Amino acid sequence: MANYSDFQLGLYFAGLAGETPPYPLTFAGLEAAAEAKMEHRLWDYVSGGAGDEHTQRANVTAFERWGILPRMLSGAADRDLSIELFGHTLPSPIFLAPIGVLGVMTDDEHGDLAAAAAAAASGVPMVASTLMQDPMEDVAAALGDTPGFFQLYTPNDRELAESLVHRAEAAGYAGIVVTLDTWTLGYRPRDLQHATFPQLRGSCLANYTSDPVFRAKLAVPPEEDLAAAAVQWAFTFGNPSLTWDDLAWLRGLTDLPLLLKGICHPDDVRRAKDAGVDGIYCSNHGGRQAASAPALDLLPAVVEAAEGLPVLFDSGVRSGADVVKALALGATAVGIGRPYGYGAVLGGTAGIEFVLSCLLAEADLTMGLNGYARIADLTRDVLVAVR
Fold first, then answer.
1. Does residue 80 belong to any structural domain of this protein?
2. Which helix (H) or strand (E) holds 67?
């Protein structure tokens, strides 16, 4: 099993030779360094959120209301962070959450491939967005033996939706994650102030421009007129009429595990279970789409309603300690978003791998030094409310 805490020992020993870490080790450091490097409009798109961004901030501070109860002499010198998920044994409980503009966040504007390479090297699964700078097939190939999941923004064209799902299936993705809270854009003042949106400028549309169904609807190929393709995408992207009645159709598109992303209410969990989904993804989109309660506060009720169905979680995770707390509240696996995105900005694949190593080392040490050797040890009793 991986001993993730060895990462920090490597940094200390490198220091004996005069080497210091190539990237910041804290989220605040990553954020500041990424802001200094990124073009201002893209920075605001990536770092910003909905409305006054209160939900985005509350996602983060929700973790501060929980402390971890230390237990001593528990034999936690050796830890096992592995989990089972949809038939896969994963070395750790974290995954790369989808970032819809990841493709243009690296210097070479192939950020999705950079993340896939980091996933392949680390064993950390990637949930690849519909909005990619490279076709999903290329990204799947770069994942190697590490499972990848395809996140679907369900378009208002069923034929196109079916094509995207079938391509993901053929490419070897391990599951389909349907995002439910983005049938239209949230109210994002930072983006509106710039009057700009990356996809309307043709960025991260490779899964559309490479799709035969989408291409058939264009007057000219996207290679000749990307602006026209972007307009067609804008009229196709979301499906505001999608309801529970459509879930049977989505379920019928594939035999792959089907997860619904954005489920935060226990009644919605139960309806999803009744419809035959394989997993729940509790998330409020990192506070980017709408004002809501902090996602972490909603997680326990979602887990209870899931009654053993896998529950993935993201929104507000900034540290390895946050990962441990989300697991203790019942998450099966925990998604990382902005932290690895900023790693991509700073160093591409190497930057993402560094961020993952930091998070895993901190999670590993947080568990061990508090006396918990296995993921199964992280129950609700591990946490104490902090006032």
1. yes
2. strand 66-68
| Cα gap 185→39, rounded to integer Å | 22
Burial of 384 per CB tally in 10 Å (0-12, 13-18, 19+): exposed
Cα–Cα distance for residue pair 151/185, rounded to 1 Å: 17
Number of domains in the chain: 1
CA dist., res. 244 & res. 194, Å (int): 36
In a domain, 238, yes or no: yes
Check: CB of residue 335 under 8 Å from CB of residue 124.
no
Positions annotated as catalytic residues are: 285
Given this model, what pLDDT does residue 380 score?
97
What stretches of 224-367 adopt beta strand conformation (E)? Answer: 258-261, 279-282, 311-313, 333-336
> Per-residue pLDDT tens for 161-218?
999 999 999 999 999 999 999 999 999 999 999 998 999 999 999 999 999 999 999 9
89 burial type by CB count under 10 A (0-12 exposed, 13-18 middle, 19+ buried): exposed
> Is the Cβ–Cβ distance between 251 and 276 less than 8 Å?
yes
Give me the residues paired with residue 314 across strands. Answer: none
Enter the pTM of the model: 0.97
Q: Are the C-beta atoms of residues 292 and 274 closer than 8 Å to each other?
A: no
Measure the CA–CA gap between 280 and 147, rounded to whole angstroms.
18
Looking up residue 316, the CATH number of its domain turns out to be 3.20.20.70
Residue 1 within a domain: no
Distance of alpha carbon 135 from its chain centroid, rounded?
A: 18
| Assigned token pair, 334 | 């925990």
Residue 334 phi/psi, 5-degree rounding, is -125, 125
Burial environment of residue 157 by CB neighbours within 10 A (0 to 12, 13 to 18, 19 or more): middle
> What range does the domain containing 187 cover?
6-385
Q: Nearest CA to 38 among 313, 351, 387?
A: 351
For the chain, counts of helices (H) and of strands (E): 16, 12
